[in-house]
Amino acid sequence: MAGLKTASGDYIDASWELSVAVEELGPEAEPLTLRVTGDVHIGGVMLQIVDKIKVKQNWSDHALWWEQKKLWLLKTNWTLDKYGLQADARLRYTPQHKPVRLQLPNRRMIRVHASFSEPVFRAVAGICRVLSIRHAEELSLLRAPEEKDKKKRKGPVLGTEDDFDLSGVVLPASAEQQPFRGMPAHFSDSPATEACYRMLSVSWTGLSPEHVLKMPRPSNLVEKAQINSRWLSSSRSLMQQDVRENEQLWLRFKYYSFFDLEPKYDVVRITQLYEQARWAVLLEETESTEEEMMVFAALQYHINKLSLSADPTEPAGEQGMDDLDSALSNLQVKLEGGTSTSDMLENLTTIPELKDNLRIFRPRKLTLKGYKQHWVVFKETSISYYKSQEEALGEPVQQLNLKGCEVVPDVNISGQKFCIKLLVPSPEGMSEVYLRCEDEQQYARWMAGCRLAAKGRTMADSTYQSEVQNILSFLQLQRASPDTPAAPDAEAMGTQWLVSPRYQKKFKPKQLTPRILEAHQNVAQLSLTEAKMRFIQAWQSLPDFGISYFVVRFKGSRKDEILGIANNRLIRIDLAVGDVVKTWRYSNMRQWNVNWDIRQVAIEFDEHINVAFSSVSAGCNIVHEYIGGYIFLSTRSTDKGRGLDEELFYKLTGGHEAL
Amino acid sequence: MEQLSDEELDHGAEEDSDKEDQDLDKMFGQWLGELDKLTQSLDTDKPMEPVKKSPLRQETNIANFSYRFSMYNLNEALNQGETVDLDALMADLCSIEQELSSIGSQSANSATMKRLATETKVAQKPPAGRLSSKHSSIKGSSSSSGRVTKPSNANFSLEDITAQLEKASLSMDEAAQQSVMEDAKPVVTAQHRRTASAGTVSDAEVRSISNSSRSSITSAASSMDSLDIDKMTRPQELDLTQQGQPITEHIVSMGHPIKQSKRHIDFTEEEAELTPEEQAAKLKAEKIRVALEKIKEAQVKKLVIRVHMSDDSSKTMMVDERQTVRQVLDNLMDKSHCGYSLDWSLVETISELQMERIFEDHENLVENLLNWTRDSQNKLIFVERIEKYALFKNPQNYLLGKKETSEMADRNKEVLLEECFCGSSVTVPEIEGVLWLKDDGKKSWKKRYFLLRASGIYYVPKGKAKVSRDLVCFLQLDHVNVYYGQDYRNKYKAPTDYCLVLKHPQIQKKSQYIKYLCCDDVRTLHQWINGIRIAKYGKQLYVNYQEALKRTESAYDWTSLSSSSIKSGSSSSSLPESQSNHSNQSDSGVSDTQPTGHVRSQSIVSSIFSEAWKRGTQLEESSKVTRRL
Please, which of A535, B188, B307, B373 could form a disulfide with A299 given CB 3.0 to 4.6 Å? Predict the structure, then answer.
């Protein structure tokens, strides 16, 4: 119908020309011009475009983008009139999914296709499906910080390595993903994607102290608040927020409320969460005490060690074979292997003992006695020592039951000092005993025995040998001096990078390693997943955990203050001192609303407490979305009703821009 | 008997299994018949004897297990001239025996079991001459069946087993008598060990048993008669447990396809389609499991303890080392008819140090009591304490780190508790403030600013700001328990009465390793103590509370108290039902010495605290009123 002309060439109907840019035709190409009328459907327009392009390809992902209005014309049955589209509109015919460079919580880069037309909430869900991360609602996207020149100057900075490419991955249509060879099926397509899965699910071991030092660290609350200004709005699409193709974005856990962490399904999720936690600790985004830092360091060391040999395709939790089964199979193996009954009886019943000449020191008040040589026998969970080996049949000088005692290593490798400090509880108090060993080997054997005994186990325990090995490898670590060639494995790396720069400065490696070693003994037996979970839990129990900071100005106040948003409460914090001024809990919250004109958030709590503030460091909508997001997450129920009420999310977080 | 087993070894190995089955079945039947006769005759001959002696005799059955027990605070009772409820104790012992015998799930074989049990009793009573005659009679019966010429090894092993049972029971009998004698003396033994007969089994015997068990299993496979299998294996199992660990191997040696059979167990629904072989394999696996369980059980330690009630009376009871405080509390509530309340607590008082602690419900009682010294003046008190679960009744006063108490709607309380305890990690309440710390070895107290974190208690060093990195670790909580200090104003010149103590549970005397802290008011004290409990025990505390809640709620629903103790007792099934049966038995024994009807009063020791607490809450309430105004 459209395009009827009079003899003079004027159009006689209501048709007009619509220009549409098509990227596929090249950047220089003129936009296509279509002759349309106001009652043409969007679908019809797209059909015309495809006809005109005359390029054979799959156009199904393409849609029309209205540049001036920043609007996707996705409703194909709407007419141009209904969209209010006129001849001055600049349209682009462009794919809805575009590649982005994503920095993951583990600071590695990955290329994936993200939806540029759906709200970020859904785009993130799509990305997480590709990455096999459940509960995508806890994550969101941030803009990457502006690159500063000074960072570019020296050396490799984390996150600038080659990208892993997952943009070609095709997800199976079915919602339920069948694991294939121990990983989600879509990862097993090619060696490249398999490597990518490894990157996602095994924590990175090639870290050096420089990496940590080079990362920007927030030094105060205001700096901690900075990151929160970069969150993208969840209710608008990437395109609407001016994100470009191939732009770098960060994917992070945004809401610190981790639902249903399950080692069985959440291999990638737990790893990434651990990585985010690890960086938060190392960069002191979440502050910790010295003791806590040592535990974190020990866990990192342990995780790294296990990660070197980890196979991500091995399903987690297999070791959970029930006692009986393992006991039986053990016995069976022993039976089949053994030759005579009496031998086996002996193996099962005899508990290994340690007997050695050791030097013992018992600090007492007002005595200057030093170490004295004794014949020491370690049997079951007790240590007895005698004046000499000949007297071992008689009464010992003393017998100590190590059950429940504290075992502290006191080692100085360069000084060839291998001491075990024992704090043995007794009704009278703790008795302090030092055992001095001759060399590493002896030390490792006795130390491992002491540790097991402290837990009430004997050296017959199956973990004894691995404990000995653990101790030896840790001593090795301590031996590694800076001048040894830096091998790329964690063993030679030293322990410096396991702690935040502050503690790197505070302690010499010589001091640091024994501290970490001491903390390590409590975690040495954890499996890889357990260790990661332990790390996450320890992180979660830090007082600073899960608080997102914003610089705000409270109504009626003249100075800037800090608002902390946590998963259950809002915290008003003094900007200068860092003290908590007031806490409000969401459970007491009646309602909150945003005055978009003056950019003010107003919250009403029970008992007519009203709070209003405007955000200084970040957009008002980000604050609003944070609060709404937490309230949305608290509505998640424990029953496995999979669907999330997405509408509710937009309602709670989107403000007037949504819907 | 040694000879017999040797002989049996010589013959045993290459038997035809089919024939053996028939032999076994018949012989077993006859044997049981014999036993019945014997028991009947005994009962009619001496009607009085069994009644009087039954506890002892039953105890001898327990002797099948290496059995250890010890007494706590009994001497005290004896000194006071009170009667020790040996009867009640015996009832306890009996219950253990029942426990052992009731493991088989089918009622049918439990009947045969009883017969077996009585048999051993009978056998153990008469002098040796009688004993051997019984043996000959069994032998006779088997010979009359005409198969002596080719004696099946199972036959011999059965005799062997009974002989061993007797041996064990005899030696245990002695032991028991000894213990009774010793009990008369006012001696508290920290840890008596009486291992009965565990080491008496010779290698040859062991092998013979394994042979016989193999044969019995094969017979099971072919005959498909489950009852017979049970008859056959039962005595062996008893025997196995008696010998402890080494036997495990033999058990396994008879089950070749263990893994396979295990799988079958997992698919019980398919039972109907199982081939006979599979079913046999399943049975085998099941038996192995039972035997293994029993082996574990054989290691169980028992402790006789004295529990002081709130009305100054006391009760003697037996606890085994697997029992949690919750289970003991349930037992005590049943026994003392005190009504069910969340607040019933077991309180440990250490008089020498003037401190006390409420045991947490999940804690192991025996483990804790073994920390006491031989001549300990410590007491275990059964008393109601509101502090125990006040944390969960009014969480807003503990979890929010606020200075003032407040009311909270129940719904919000639940939300708060869930938030704190049900996440993937427990949130330790942010408690901080100035406390007094006692100087080591001196009666002087210094002020310091303390903070509680999940990783321990910290303080702010002088001249430093309150930032995480500068905090100094005062104590980590893994190795210490938190106690209420009592009357330290007098003892140590403490600034207030509200003291808390942190020490390793094993420390029982004054030591520099005990840390004393003093709070300005009772409210702070309770906040700190509960905060430390949360940091130390985490979610377990909440689980304890919920279980206690369930326990008390269900208790009101049940008309019969004892049945409720069975049904609603803690979820751990390690305590079989017979345990609660015995609690009824012993109850009758105990209640004689007890004034009936326990008054719900606070004991003297605890009164200071509960009063202080009341004062505190009253203050809070009054302050609330003023705030409202």
Answer: A535
Q: How far apart are CA A303 and CA A204, in angstroms?
A: 10
The two structure tokens encoding residue B58 = 């039953």
Q: Which stretches does DSSP call E strand in A427-558?
A: 429-437, 548-554
Chain A residues with CB-CB distance to B421 below 8 A: none
pLDDT tens column, B311-351: 888 888 888 888 899 999 988 888 888 888 888 999 999 99
Rounded (5°) CA angle A401-B317-B351: 60
The confidence score (pLDDT) of residue A170 equals 67
CA B375-B377-B381 angle, 5° bins: 135
Would you call A566 helix, strand, or coil by DSSP? coil
- What is the rounded CA–CA span in Å between residue A554 and residue A600? 9
Structure tokens that stand for A180 in this block: 């294939």
The amino acid present at A336, given as its one-letter code, is E
Who's near B574: CB < 8 A, 6+ residues apart? B322
DSSP secondary structure letter of residue B22: H
CA nearest neighbour of A448 among A464, A433, A472: A464
- Among residues A208, A203, A217, the alpha carbon closest in space to that of A275 is found at A203
The yes-or-no verdict on residue B83 having pLDDT over 50 is: no
Nearest-CB residue to B511 (from A292, A428, A568): A428
Chain B within 8 Å of A336 (Cβ-Cβ)?
no
3-state secondary structure of A573: strand
Please list every residue in chain A whose beta carbon sits closer than 8 Å to the beta carbon of residue B415. 587
CA pair distance B97, A286, nearest whole angstrom: 57
A 461-490: CB under 8 A from B:
none
- pLDDT at residue B201 tops 60: no
B427–chain A nearest CA distance, Å: 6
Q: Which of residues 241-300 of A touch B (CB under 8 A)?
A: 257-258, 261, 284, 287-292, 295
Other C-beta atoms within 10 Å of A154: how many?
A: 9
* Stretch 582-611 of chain A: residues touching chain B, C-beta under 8 Å: 583, 585, 587-588
Site of tokens 């502090």: B387
User: In chain A, which residues have pLDDT < 50?
Assistant: 149-157, 159, 315-324, 333-347, 481-492, 658-659
Q: Which amino acid is at B178?
A: Q
